[in-house]
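Posting for a labmate who doesn't have an account.
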Amino acid sequence: MIAAGELLVIVVLGYLLLRAHAGNNHAASRRLETDKRAYEKWVTGFATGLGDRPAVVILEPDALAQLSNCPDKAQRQARLQMLSYAIKTLQTKSDHVYLDAGHSNWVPAGQMAARLRAAGVARAYGFALNVSNFDTTDSEIGYATALNRDLGMAKRFVIDTSRNGHASARARGHLAAGSISRALPGPGRGALTNRLFTDPNSEAAGWVRTHPGDPLARAISRRIANQPTANWFGPWTGDISAAVSGYTSAASSQHKVPVLVAYDIPHLGCSGNSSVGARQWCNPPGRQLGSVPQVLDDRGDMGLWIKAPGESDGNCGVGTGTQVGEFSPAIARELIVGRS
């Protein structure tokens, strides 16, 4: 039997716990609202920087694939709302926005299709696959086909082919026969890939200029620095409007179309552990450059270089001793020559 005094203590403790829980929920809601406002401001700045100049925008790599790392329903819903806002703000007649959808070995197609729909992919130009990853082009085309089936709509897609010459299936560094047959001349062979901007100030180009006598300089210049590659814009950019405007203006002055990656979603990994599976994605050995940016089929779906070859994933694998985003001639050499 519980005494009256003990019962009072239990009631008071329960009341205090409920108050603490309600306070925590309120604080979490305030943090989410703050995150959403900050992100919307960043996206608006990004859009201002784009202006009316044509561009290809790869939107938030890994944000949908890592959605399940967010333990709270409110966090997941807030992320979907942020992505939806970004699509509505950035997708215009002149700009093509591709919402990232992970890759074929990550989230099942049916589950990813549901996330794409919830994030408003219907308004986007399409979705992006294999960003910074190594899966074969054919496997990603198959995944894109499954996504479109489960979406119930035919969306365009782009595949990151920058480092998938040697992938999990030991694919060759060019399109497999099944893909080549889809790349015959047609309406989608429109020369968008021929009009993509090659940044003369990329990390690879900068390394070549400062190492003219290095035996690798010629190969890196020809195979990497002279290929159109996406430029990533995140929270470290500072004035996002000025940064995006400067880049798109440089492309426009050459009558070229830039590829930009918008990468600023708050708390990307939520409570997940980003080191899981690092050996598979963090500067692994035995990888090789994939096919150069090109149209894959008569719809205009493209293979692009989204992750810049030679730029490190971090202090790991063949990039030991490097920092994230640092250009490494050792990594570049691995990608150029390949290694079993």
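Reply:
Got it, the structure tokens are right above this. The chain has one domain: 35-204+223-310.
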